[in-house]
Design brief:
Number of domains: 1
Structural class: mainly alpha
Distance between the termini: 60 Å
Helix content: over 70%
Strand order of the largest sheet: 1-2
Radius of gyration: 24 Å
Number of helices: 8
Order of helices and strands: HEEHHHHHHH
């Protein structure tokens, strides 16, 4: 029994490592199972937060907003990494099909099924056994994005409170206040937020002031243009229909897709030779 107890601590890390290796090397829908497990875990925590949100937000609104932002921004970066992985693995699949990695020298009835030879209807199974690269999560990227979500939640919550007090809305006067809030939000807060986001990411990735200036000159204006195609409409709904304490979670929830795009834009700009 004492010997078994001594073996237990060393066997647990081995088992964990074995599970991690299996999740990282087996694929589903062109992404490692590990990616899907992490996404599912984030969703479980988010659903749990939704259940306790109403009771908690009245007691500690800023804490709840911060936790929700950390989860939603972390999920966004995980989703961005997963989208990037799927794109890369799809490219690998196409290249393999183009090169004819099917044992083409044999008659069709004698060929062994290769990793990419099955019909598209078997895509799920094929992707699960294909020799794609194993998952290589950038934990540092998730931490940076989650940290940014936490910092932003504090500023954004105060900003929404300011808009609510500075531009009051009544039952008789709705349209003009809503449009003014959207105007102030998009013309003042959004450019500062986007510039701060890219500066924060570049700095925490080890960039200096020259790298920050180069990043901003390359991506800030295109990102703003894309922002103005999406967020004015979303913020009209937010300011018109959503109560104050739910406006930040609403914006962050809608922002999952936007933040996923931001994470991709930031990582792609890092890989560009011009950045």
């Amino acid at each position: 029994m004492p010997a078994a107890r001594r073996l237990l601590p060393s066997s647990v890390p081995l088992a964990v490592e074995r599970v991690h290796r299996g999740l990282a090397t087996h694929h589903f829908l062109y992404a490692p199972l590990l990616n899907w497990v992490v996404i599912f875990t984030y969703l479980v925590f988010i659903v749990r937060l939704i259940y306790i949100f109403n009771d908690s937000v009245t007691v500690s609104p800023l804490v709840v907003m911060s936790v929700s932002n950390v989860l939603l921004y972390g999920l966004s970066d995980v989703a961005a990494q997963t989208v990037s992985t799927i794109s890369d693995n799809l490219a690998i699949s196409r290249r393999s099909n183009t090169l004819g990695l099917y044992n083409n020298e044999k008659p069709e009835e004698e060929r062994e099924p290769g990793p990419f030879t099955r019909a598209s209807s078997h895509l799920f199974v094929t992707a699960a056994v294909s020799p794609f690269p194993s998952s290589s999560f950038r934990i540092d990227s998730i931490v940076r994005f989650s940290t940014w979500g936490f910092l932003l939640s504090i500023v954004q919550f105060k900003w929404l409170e300011f808009l609510n007090a500075f531009i009051p809305m009544t039952d008789e006067n709705v349209v003009i206040p809503v449009l003014l809030r959207v105007l102030f939000d998009q013309l003042f807060f959004t450019p500062i937020f986007l510039a701060a986001f890219f500066a924060f990411m570049t700095f925490t990735e080890g960039g200096d002031s020259a790298a920050i200036n180069k990043k901003l000159s390359a991506v800030l204006v295109p990102t703003l243009k894309t922002n103005y195609m999406i967020w004015p409409a979303a913020q009209i709904i937010n300011f018109r229909l959503i109560p104050l304490h739910f406006q930040l979670p609403f914006a962050s929830t809608v922002g999952i897709f936007w933040n996923t795009w931001l994470s991709l834009a930031n990582s792609q700009s890092n890989s560009s030779p011009d950045i």
